Amino acid sequence: MRRFFYFFWVFLLAITELNAQATLLVGEKSITLEENFSLSFIIKSANASIETPIFKFPELPGLRKLGVSRSKATDIQNGESVYSYTFSQYYQASATGSLLIPPAEVIVNQQSLKTEAFALLISESAQKEEVVEDTKAQIEDLFKGQSSLFLALTSTQFQPFVGQGFTLKFSLFIPDDNSTRYSFDRNDVQIPPLIQKIRPKNCWEESFGLQEVKVSKVVYKNKKYTEYRFFQSTFFALDAKKIVIPSLSLHLLKNNEKVVFSSKPIVISPKELPNHPLKGKIPVGDFHLEETLSQVQVQTGDTVAYISSVVGDGNSILWDSKLIESDYFLNFYPVGTQSSVYPYGDKMFGNKTEKILIIPSQPGKFALKSYFNWIFFNTRTAAYDTLRSEAILAVSGQPSDRLLNTQTETMLLYRGLEKLAADKVIGYRWNDWKQIFNALLGLVLFWLFILIIKAKK
Protein backbone atom coordinates (compact mmCIF):
# COMPACT_ATOMS: atom_id res chain seq x y z
CA MET A 1 0.00 0.00 0.00
CA ARG A 2 2.83 2.39 0.87
CA ARG A 3 4.52 1.70 -2.48
CA PHE A 4 1.23 2.42 -4.24
CA PHE A 5 0.84 5.81 -2.55
CA TYR A 6 4.49 6.63 -3.21
CA PHE A 7 4.22 5.99 -6.95
CA PHE A 8 0.84 7.74 -7.03
CA TRP A 9 2.42 10.82 -5.43
CA VAL A 10 5.36 10.79 -7.90
CA PHE A 11 2.90 10.45 -10.78
CA LEU A 12 0.82 13.33 -9.42
CA LEU A 13 3.91 15.56 -9.16
CA ALA A 14 4.91 14.68 -12.73
CA ILE A 15 1.45 15.55 -14.03
CA THR A 16 1.56 18.82 -12.11
CA GLU A 17 4.91 19.71 -13.70
CA LEU A 18 3.66 18.92 -17.18
CA ASN A 19 0.57 21.05 -16.65
CA ALA A 20 2.19 23.94 -14.77
CA GLN A 21 -0.12 26.88 -15.22
CA ALA A 22 1.14 30.35 -16.04
CA THR A 23 -0.22 33.48 -14.38
CA LEU A 24 -0.43 36.77 -16.28
CA LEU A 25 0.70 40.10 -14.83
CA VAL A 26 0.02 43.51 -16.40
CA GLY A 27 2.55 46.30 -15.75
CA GLU A 28 1.98 49.89 -14.66
CA LYS A 29 -0.69 51.64 -16.71
CA SER A 30 0.84 55.08 -16.26
CA ILE A 31 4.37 55.51 -17.60
CA THR A 32 6.71 58.15 -19.03
CA LEU A 33 8.38 58.11 -22.44
CA GLU A 34 11.57 56.89 -20.78
CA GLU A 35 9.80 53.99 -19.09
CA ASN A 36 8.56 50.78 -20.67
CA PHE A 37 5.23 49.04 -20.36
CA SER A 38 5.42 45.32 -19.60
CA LEU A 39 3.38 42.16 -19.85
CA SER A 40 4.64 39.23 -17.76
CA PHE A 41 3.75 35.66 -16.95
CA ILE A 42 4.86 33.56 -13.97
CA ILE A 43 5.33 29.80 -13.87
CA LYS A 44 5.76 28.03 -10.52
CA SER A 45 7.58 24.72 -10.33
CA ALA A 46 9.09 22.32 -7.82
CA ASN A 47 12.16 22.00 -10.07
CA ALA A 48 15.21 24.23 -9.69
CA SER A 49 15.42 24.56 -13.48
CA ILE A 50 12.89 24.29 -16.27
CA GLU A 51 13.03 24.34 -20.02
CA THR A 52 12.32 27.76 -21.49
CA PRO A 53 8.61 27.73 -22.33
CA ILE A 54 7.34 28.40 -25.82
CA PHE A 55 5.57 31.73 -25.62
CA LYS A 56 4.28 34.55 -27.77
CA PHE A 57 3.48 38.07 -26.60
CA PRO A 58 1.03 40.18 -28.63
CA GLU A 59 1.67 43.28 -30.69
CA LEU A 60 0.10 46.30 -29.02
CA PRO A 61 -1.05 49.35 -31.05
CA GLY A 62 1.05 52.46 -30.54
CA LEU A 63 3.82 50.51 -28.77
CA ARG A 64 7.07 49.04 -30.05
CA LYS A 65 8.08 45.57 -28.90
CA LEU A 66 11.43 45.45 -27.11
CA GLY A 67 13.21 42.53 -25.43
CA VAL A 68 12.09 39.83 -23.02
CA SER A 69 13.71 39.49 -19.60
CA ARG A 70 13.38 36.68 -17.09
CA SER A 71 13.85 36.30 -13.37
CA LYS A 72 13.82 33.41 -10.94
CA ALA A 73 12.67 33.42 -7.32
CA THR A 74 13.08 30.67 -4.74
CA ASP A 75 10.75 30.43 -1.78
CA ILE A 76 11.49 27.90 0.96
CA GLN A 77 8.46 27.03 3.03
CA ASN A 78 8.48 24.32 5.67
CA GLY A 79 11.72 22.97 4.25
CA GLU A 80 10.33 22.64 0.70
CA SER A 81 11.52 24.79 -2.23
CA VAL A 82 9.08 26.47 -4.58
CA TYR A 83 10.54 28.14 -7.69
CA SER A 84 8.90 30.99 -9.61
CA TYR A 85 10.00 31.88 -13.15
CA THR A 86 8.93 35.27 -14.54
CA PHE A 87 9.15 36.23 -18.22
CA SER A 88 8.50 39.89 -19.07
CA GLN A 89 7.92 41.46 -22.50
CA TYR A 90 8.72 45.18 -22.61
CA TYR A 91 7.02 47.72 -24.87
CA GLN A 92 8.16 51.27 -25.73
CA ALA A 93 5.89 54.20 -26.48
CA SER A 94 6.83 56.76 -29.14
CA ALA A 95 4.57 59.65 -28.11
CA THR A 96 2.76 61.04 -25.11
CA GLY A 97 -0.97 60.73 -24.64
CA SER A 98 -3.53 58.09 -23.76
CA LEU A 99 -3.50 54.79 -25.65
CA LEU A 100 -6.49 52.47 -25.69
CA ILE A 101 -5.07 48.95 -25.51
CA PRO A 102 -7.61 46.41 -26.78
CA PRO A 103 -8.00 42.91 -25.28
CA ALA A 104 -4.80 40.96 -25.88
CA GLU A 105 -3.66 37.36 -25.63
CA VAL A 106 -0.37 35.83 -24.39
CA ILE A 107 0.32 32.23 -25.43
CA VAL A 108 2.44 30.10 -23.06
CA ASN A 109 2.94 26.44 -23.96
CA GLN A 110 -0.45 26.41 -25.74
CA GLN A 111 -2.07 28.05 -22.72
CA SER A 112 -4.00 31.23 -23.50
CA LEU A 113 -3.73 34.16 -21.07
CA LYS A 114 -6.02 37.08 -21.88
CA THR A 115 -6.10 40.71 -20.76
CA GLU A 116 -9.04 43.06 -20.78
CA ALA A 117 -8.97 46.38 -22.61
CA PHE A 118 -7.44 49.28 -20.70
CA ALA A 119 -6.08 52.79 -21.18
CA LEU A 120 -2.32 53.36 -21.02
CA LEU A 121 -1.26 56.89 -20.02
CA ILE A 122 2.13 58.10 -21.35
CA SER A 123 3.50 61.37 -19.99
CA GLU A 124 6.42 63.56 -21.05
CA SER A 125 9.83 63.25 -19.38
CA ALA A 126 13.21 64.82 -19.88
CA GLN A 127 15.35 62.86 -22.31
CA LYS A 128 18.60 61.68 -20.81
CA GLU A 129 21.72 60.12 -22.14
CA GLU A 130 21.80 56.40 -21.47
CA VAL A 131 25.07 56.40 -19.59
CA VAL A 132 23.92 55.32 -16.14
CA GLU A 133 25.68 51.98 -15.90
CA ASP A 134 28.74 52.62 -18.04
CA THR A 135 31.61 54.86 -17.06
CA LYS A 136 32.26 58.05 -18.99
CA ALA A 137 35.49 56.59 -20.36
CA GLN A 138 33.66 53.56 -21.77
CA ILE A 139 31.06 55.75 -23.45
CA GLU A 140 33.75 57.98 -24.92
CA ASP A 141 35.57 54.93 -26.25
CA LEU A 142 32.35 53.50 -27.70
CA PHE A 143 31.39 56.58 -29.72
CA LYS A 144 34.87 57.98 -30.41
CA GLY A 145 35.44 58.45 -34.11
CA GLN A 146 32.00 57.11 -35.04
CA SER A 147 30.19 59.31 -37.55
CA SER A 148 28.04 56.66 -39.20
CA LEU A 149 26.45 53.41 -38.12
CA PHE A 150 28.68 50.92 -36.27
CA LEU A 151 28.61 47.50 -34.63
CA ALA A 152 29.77 47.26 -31.01
CA LEU A 153 30.42 44.60 -28.40
CA THR A 154 30.68 46.28 -24.99
CA SER A 155 31.37 45.24 -21.41
CA THR A 156 30.56 47.07 -18.18
CA GLN A 157 33.86 45.77 -16.71
CA PHE A 158 37.17 44.86 -18.32
CA GLN A 159 39.03 43.96 -15.13
CA PRO A 160 36.41 42.48 -12.81
CA PHE A 161 37.30 40.49 -9.72
CA VAL A 162 36.75 36.75 -9.92
CA GLY A 163 33.07 36.31 -9.11
CA GLN A 164 32.15 39.91 -9.96
CA GLY A 165 29.50 40.40 -12.60
CA PHE A 166 30.20 42.04 -15.95
CA THR A 167 27.54 42.58 -18.60
CA LEU A 168 28.21 42.01 -22.30
CA LYS A 169 26.05 43.74 -24.90
CA PHE A 170 26.13 43.28 -28.66
CA SER A 171 24.43 46.08 -30.59
CA LEU A 172 24.20 47.99 -33.84
CA PHE A 173 24.05 51.80 -33.55
CA ILE A 174 22.54 53.86 -36.39
CA PRO A 175 22.54 57.70 -36.23
CA ASP A 176 19.08 59.20 -36.68
CA ASP A 177 20.51 61.63 -39.24
CA ASN A 178 21.82 58.75 -41.37
CA SER A 179 20.59 59.26 -44.94
CA THR A 180 21.46 55.81 -46.29
CA ARG A 181 18.80 53.14 -46.01
CA TYR A 182 19.95 49.80 -44.65
CA SER A 183 18.02 46.64 -43.90
CA PHE A 184 18.78 43.46 -41.95
CA ASP A 185 19.49 40.26 -43.83
CA ARG A 186 18.49 36.97 -42.16
CA ASN A 187 19.36 37.89 -38.59
CA ASP A 188 17.85 34.59 -37.51
CA VAL A 189 20.76 32.91 -39.32
CA GLN A 190 23.51 35.46 -38.62
CA ILE A 191 23.01 36.26 -34.93
CA PRO A 192 23.02 32.80 -33.21
CA PRO A 193 26.60 31.87 -34.29
CA LEU A 194 27.82 35.32 -33.19
CA ILE A 195 26.24 34.89 -29.76
CA GLN A 196 28.03 31.58 -29.31
CA LYS A 197 31.34 33.38 -29.91
CA ILE A 198 30.47 35.94 -27.24
CA ARG A 199 29.70 33.54 -24.37
CA PRO A 200 32.82 32.85 -22.22
CA LYS A 201 33.17 29.23 -21.15
CA ASN A 202 34.65 29.80 -17.69
CA CYS A 203 31.78 31.97 -16.44
CA TRP A 204 28.39 31.66 -14.78
CA GLU A 205 25.77 33.32 -16.99
CA GLU A 206 22.59 35.18 -16.07
CA SER A 207 20.76 36.04 -19.28
CA PHE A 208 18.57 39.09 -19.88
CA GLY A 209 16.46 36.81 -22.05
CA LEU A 210 16.39 38.86 -25.27
CA GLN A 211 14.42 36.75 -27.75
CA GLU A 212 13.91 39.63 -30.13
CA VAL A 213 15.96 42.66 -31.08
CA LYS A 214 15.63 45.35 -28.41
CA VAL A 215 15.28 48.77 -30.01
CA SER A 216 15.96 51.91 -27.95
CA LYS A 217 17.06 55.52 -28.33
CA VAL A 218 20.49 56.72 -27.17
CA VAL A 219 21.75 60.29 -27.06
CA TYR A 220 25.46 61.10 -27.04
CA LYS A 221 26.65 64.72 -27.13
CA ASN A 222 23.29 65.87 -28.51
CA LYS A 223 23.43 63.34 -31.32
CA LYS A 224 20.63 60.78 -31.44
CA TYR A 225 21.19 57.11 -32.23
CA THR A 226 18.91 54.10 -32.53
CA GLU A 227 20.38 51.07 -30.82
CA TYR A 228 19.45 47.58 -32.01
CA ARG A 229 20.54 45.26 -29.22
CA PHE A 230 20.93 41.61 -30.20
CA PHE A 231 22.39 40.14 -27.02
CA GLN A 232 22.78 41.00 -23.34
CA SER A 233 23.94 38.79 -20.48
CA THR A 234 25.75 39.19 -17.17
CA PHE A 235 28.68 36.86 -16.54
CA PHE A 236 30.51 35.94 -13.33
CA ALA A 237 34.08 34.76 -13.92
CA LEU A 238 34.85 31.47 -12.14
CA ASP A 239 38.63 31.91 -12.32
CA ALA A 240 41.28 34.45 -13.31
CA LYS A 241 41.78 33.14 -16.85
CA LYS A 242 41.82 35.86 -19.51
CA ILE A 243 38.65 36.08 -21.64
CA VAL A 244 39.17 37.01 -25.30
CA ILE A 245 36.17 37.72 -27.52
CA PRO A 246 37.10 38.11 -31.20
CA SER A 247 35.84 40.66 -33.69
CA LEU A 248 32.25 39.93 -34.77
CA SER A 249 30.92 40.71 -38.25
CA LEU A 250 27.36 41.36 -39.35
CA HIS A 251 26.27 42.14 -42.89
CA LEU A 252 23.39 44.43 -43.82
CA LEU A 253 21.72 45.08 -47.13
CA LYS A 254 22.30 48.42 -48.87
CA ASN A 255 20.45 48.69 -52.17
CA ASN A 256 20.32 44.87 -52.24
CA GLU A 257 24.10 44.69 -51.80
CA LYS A 258 25.78 43.20 -48.73
CA VAL A 259 27.75 45.59 -46.54
CA VAL A 260 29.79 44.15 -43.66
CA PHE A 261 30.24 45.85 -40.28
CA SER A 262 32.59 44.51 -37.63
CA SER A 263 33.00 45.08 -33.89
CA LYS A 264 36.31 45.51 -32.08
CA PRO A 265 37.66 42.49 -30.18
CA ILE A 266 37.62 42.85 -26.41
CA VAL A 267 39.65 41.28 -23.61
CA ILE A 268 38.33 40.69 -20.08
CA SER A 269 41.06 40.15 -17.46
CA PRO A 270 39.56 38.93 -14.16
CA LYS A 271 41.53 39.74 -11.00
CA GLU A 272 42.17 37.29 -8.18
CA LEU A 273 40.53 37.99 -4.84
CA PRO A 274 42.77 38.65 -1.82
CA ASN A 275 43.38 35.66 0.43
CA HIS A 276 40.64 35.01 2.98
CA PRO A 277 39.37 31.89 4.79
CA LEU A 278 36.05 32.22 2.91
CA LYS A 279 37.57 33.05 -0.49
CA GLY A 280 35.43 31.52 -3.24
CA LYS A 281 32.58 30.72 -0.84
CA ILE A 282 31.04 34.16 -0.40
CA PRO A 283 29.39 36.58 -2.85
CA VAL A 284 31.35 39.22 -4.74
CA GLY A 285 29.64 42.52 -5.50
CA ASP A 286 28.17 45.65 -3.99
CA PHE A 287 25.40 44.77 -1.53
CA HIS A 288 23.23 46.51 1.01
CA LEU A 289 20.95 45.22 3.76
CA GLU A 290 17.25 45.97 4.13
CA GLU A 291 15.63 44.71 7.34
CA THR A 292 12.42 45.04 9.30
CA LEU A 293 11.17 43.97 12.73
CA SER A 294 7.42 43.52 13.20
CA GLN A 295 7.86 44.99 16.70
CA VAL A 296 10.80 46.69 18.41
CA GLN A 297 9.39 46.64 21.96
CA VAL A 298 7.96 43.35 23.20
CA GLN A 299 7.38 41.22 26.29
CA THR A 300 9.16 37.96 27.02
CA GLY A 301 7.33 35.16 25.24
CA ASP A 302 6.02 37.41 22.45
CA THR A 303 6.70 36.49 18.80
CA VAL A 304 8.61 38.95 16.59
CA ALA A 305 9.04 38.57 12.81
CA TYR A 306 12.48 39.57 11.51
CA ILE A 307 12.81 39.96 7.73
CA SER A 308 16.19 40.58 6.09
CA SER A 309 16.88 41.26 2.41
CA VAL A 310 20.42 41.37 1.04
CA VAL A 311 20.29 43.16 -2.32
CA GLY A 312 23.07 43.92 -4.78
CA ASP A 313 24.67 43.39 -8.16
CA GLY A 314 26.52 40.22 -7.16
CA ASN A 315 25.59 36.58 -7.48
CA SER A 316 23.14 36.07 -4.60
CA ILE A 317 23.12 32.27 -4.92
CA LEU A 318 26.24 32.20 -2.73
CA TRP A 319 24.46 33.76 0.24
CA ASP A 320 24.02 31.12 2.93
CA SER A 321 20.71 30.90 4.73
CA LYS A 322 21.06 32.14 8.28
CA LEU A 323 21.05 29.13 10.59
CA ILE A 324 20.89 30.95 13.90
CA GLU A 325 20.99 28.84 17.05
CA SER A 326 18.76 29.80 19.94
CA ASP A 327 20.44 30.82 23.18
CA TYR A 328 19.46 31.67 26.76
CA PHE A 329 18.08 35.05 25.69
CA LEU A 330 16.44 34.60 22.26
CA ASN A 331 14.83 31.69 20.40
CA PHE A 332 14.98 31.65 16.58
CA TYR A 333 12.63 29.83 14.20
CA PRO A 334 13.30 30.11 10.41
CA VAL A 335 10.09 30.49 8.41
CA GLY A 336 11.09 30.91 4.77
CA THR A 337 13.78 31.94 2.30
CA GLN A 338 13.33 33.59 -1.08
CA SER A 339 16.04 34.33 -3.62
CA SER A 340 15.63 36.04 -6.98
CA VAL A 341 17.77 37.25 -9.87
CA TYR A 342 16.45 40.05 -12.06
CA PRO A 343 17.79 42.57 -14.60
CA TYR A 344 18.18 46.15 -13.42
CA GLY A 345 19.50 48.59 -15.98
CA ASP A 346 22.64 47.07 -17.46
CA LYS A 347 23.28 44.81 -14.45
CA MET A 348 21.85 41.63 -13.02
CA PHE A 349 20.74 42.07 -9.42
CA GLY A 350 20.25 39.41 -6.77
CA ASN A 351 17.99 39.47 -3.73
CA LYS A 352 18.12 37.01 -0.82
CA THR A 353 15.22 37.46 1.62
CA GLU A 354 14.76 35.50 4.83
CA LYS A 355 12.04 35.53 7.46
CA ILE A 356 12.84 34.38 10.99
CA LEU A 357 10.58 34.39 14.05
CA ILE A 358 12.16 35.52 17.32
CA ILE A 359 10.76 34.67 20.76
CA PRO A 360 12.68 36.37 23.60
CA SER A 361 13.16 34.49 26.88
CA GLN A 362 14.88 37.18 28.95
CA PRO A 363 14.32 40.92 29.36
CA GLY A 364 16.87 43.43 28.11
CA LYS A 365 18.03 45.25 24.97
CA PHE A 366 19.44 42.99 22.27
CA ALA A 367 21.46 44.26 19.29
CA LEU A 368 20.72 41.79 16.49
CA LYS A 369 24.14 42.42 14.93
CA SER A 370 25.39 39.83 17.41
CA TYR A 371 23.25 37.26 15.60
CA PHE A 372 22.86 38.43 11.99
CA ASN A 373 25.77 39.32 9.70
CA TRP A 374 26.68 38.64 6.08
CA ILE A 375 30.28 38.48 4.84
CA PHE A 376 31.08 39.37 1.21
CA PHE A 377 33.81 40.86 -0.97
CA ASN A 378 32.94 44.49 -1.64
CA THR A 379 33.87 45.39 -5.24
CA ARG A 380 33.37 49.08 -4.50
CA THR A 381 36.04 49.13 -1.77
CA ALA A 382 38.06 46.15 -3.10
CA ALA A 383 38.05 44.59 0.37
CA TYR A 384 36.17 41.97 2.36
CA ASP A 385 33.20 43.48 4.13
CA THR A 386 30.39 42.53 6.49
CA LEU A 387 26.78 43.62 6.52
CA ARG A 388 25.50 43.69 10.09
CA SER A 389 22.00 44.07 11.40
CA GLU A 390 21.26 47.48 12.89
CA ALA A 391 18.01 46.40 14.55
CA ILE A 392 17.68 46.52 18.33
CA LEU A 393 15.01 44.53 20.14
CA ALA A 394 13.85 45.88 23.52
CA VAL A 395 12.35 43.17 25.73
CA SER A 396 10.55 43.76 29.01
CA GLY A 397 8.76 41.43 31.40
CA GLN A 398 9.94 38.56 33.54
CA PRO A 399 12.46 35.87 32.61
CA SER A 400 10.80 32.81 31.08
CA ASP A 401 11.53 29.45 32.71
CA ARG A 402 11.72 26.92 29.89
CA LEU A 403 11.15 23.95 32.23
CA LEU A 404 8.21 25.31 34.23
CA ASN A 405 4.93 26.78 33.07
CA THR A 406 4.65 29.88 35.22
CA GLN A 407 1.16 30.59 33.93
CA THR A 408 -0.40 27.52 35.58
CA GLU A 409 -2.83 28.50 38.34
CA THR A 410 -1.60 25.82 40.76
CA MET A 411 1.99 27.06 40.72
CA LEU A 412 1.34 29.96 43.10
CA LEU A 413 4.95 30.18 44.24
CA TYR A 414 6.22 30.96 40.74
CA ARG A 415 3.33 33.34 40.08
CA GLY A 416 4.47 35.25 43.19
CA LEU A 417 8.03 35.37 41.94
CA GLU A 418 6.86 36.81 38.61
CA LYS A 419 5.48 39.82 40.47
CA LEU A 420 8.95 40.76 41.64
CA ALA A 421 11.44 42.67 39.51
CA ALA A 422 13.94 40.48 37.70
CA ASP A 423 16.92 41.90 39.62
CA LYS A 424 15.17 41.24 42.94
CA VAL A 425 14.43 37.66 41.97
CA ILE A 426 18.07 37.03 41.10
CA GLY A 427 19.26 38.71 44.34
CA TYR A 428 16.72 36.77 46.39
CA ARG A 429 18.01 33.45 45.07
CA TRP A 430 21.63 34.44 45.64
CA ASN A 431 20.98 35.61 49.20
CA ASP A 432 19.25 32.32 50.02
CA TRP A 433 22.18 30.24 48.82
CA LYS A 434 24.68 32.47 50.62
CA GLN A 435 22.80 32.11 53.93
CA ILE A 436 22.58 28.35 53.54
CA PHE A 437 26.31 28.16 52.77
CA ASN A 438 27.20 30.25 55.84
CA ALA A 439 24.99 28.09 58.06
CA LEU A 440 26.60 24.87 56.81
CA LEU A 441 30.08 26.35 57.24
CA GLY A 442 29.19 27.33 60.83
CA LEU A 443 27.96 23.82 61.61
CA VAL A 444 31.17 22.27 60.23
CA LEU A 445 33.37 24.60 62.29
CA PHE A 446 31.31 23.91 65.42
CA TRP A 447 31.64 20.13 64.90
CA LEU A 448 35.42 20.45 64.43
CA PHE A 449 35.64 22.48 67.64
CA ILE A 450 33.82 19.71 69.58
CA LEU A 451 36.13 17.03 68.14
CA ILE A 452 39.24 18.99 69.16
CA ILE A 453 37.98 19.35 72.76
CA LYS A 454 37.19 15.60 73.02
CA ALA A 455 40.63 14.74 71.67
CA LYS A 456 42.38 16.79 74.40
CA LYS A 457 40.44 14.93 77.13
Structural description of this entry:
With 457 residues, the protein is an alpha+beta fold. It folds into 3 domains: 107 residues, Immunoglobulin-like (Sandwich), CATH 2.60.40; 144 residues, no CATH class; 112 residues, Sandwich (Immunoglobulin-like). It is built from 5 helices and 30 strands. The longest helix is centred in the C-terminal third of the chain and has 35 residues. The N terminus is likely disordered.
Task: Describe the strand arrangement of the main beta sheet, using strand numbers.
Answer: 1-3-6-5-25-26-24-22
Strand content: 35-45%
Low-confidence stretches: 1-19, 127-134, 402-431
What is the total domain count?
3
How much helix, percentage-wise, in residues?
10-25%
SS field, number of helical segments: 5
Using only CA atoms, what is the Rg? 32 Å
Total number of beta strands: 30
> Helix- and strand-based class?
alpha+beta
* Oligomeric state of this protein: single chain
Mean pLDDT: 80
For the biggest sheet, the summary is: 8 strands, antiparallel
Q: Which descriptor suits the 3D outline? A: elongated
Taking the alpha carbons of the first and last residues, their distance comes to 88 Å
Describe the structure in brief.
By secondary structure, the chain is of the alpha+beta class. The chain is built from 5 helices and 30 strands.
Keywords:
Immunoglobulin-like; 45% strand; alpha+beta; five-stranded antiparallel sheet; 17% helix
